[in-house]
Design a protein that fits this description.
The protein is an all-alpha fold and about 140 residues long. Helix content is about 60%, strand content about 0%. About 10% of the residues are buried. InterPro entries: Homeodomain-like_sf, Paired_dom, Transposase_Tc1-like, WH-like_DNA-bd_sf. GO terms for molecular function: DNA binding. Pfam families: HTH_Tnp_Tc3_2, PAX.
């Protein structure tokens, strides 16, 4: 669910102060009646309609850092998360753990993969396959 903009929140409070019902406010603003009710309750209790500060550690990477990590990985597909972390520290001064880089890459839709290890075809095997194909052509 998307959060309401500050302007919409203030509009809901103003309409309520003008005496409109929650249902009419909901129809006018395009906000659900439950959201209007919760917003008005919050305004009544705190006198404020702004979001409270979110709990938890704030993100260390800004959007520009995330883009830099993604582009670095796309330009050099074999670069490890440790190397990307070091490069990020050099370029932008942002110190992050390699696991933070990996999480950023996953959010960007890039996942770590290993190429399948298989032996190359030897010349003798190539000749045998060609003979078999010619023999069983029809």
């Amino acid at each position: 669910m998307a959060r309401l903009s500050t302007a919409t929140r203030h509009k809901v409070v103003i309409l309520h102060q003008q005496g409109l019902s929650q249902a009419k406010i909901s129809r006018q603003t395009g906000v659900s009646r439950c959201a209007v009710q919760a917003l008005l309750k919050k305004h009544k209790e705190t006198g404020n309609v702004e979001d409270r500060r979110r709990s938890g550690q704030p993100r260390k990477l800004i959007a520009a850092d995330e883009r830099h990590i993604m582009l670095t990985s796309l330009h050099n597909r074999k670069m490890s998360s440790s190397a990307i972390s070091s490069e990020l520290a050099e370029n932008s001064g942002t110190l992050v753990h390699p696991s933070t880089v990996r999480r950023s890459l996953v959010r960007s839709g890039l996942h770590g993969r290993l190429a399948a290890k298989k032996p190359y075809l030897q010349s003798g095997n190539k000749a045998k396959r060609l003979n078999y194909a010619r023999k069983h052509r029809n």
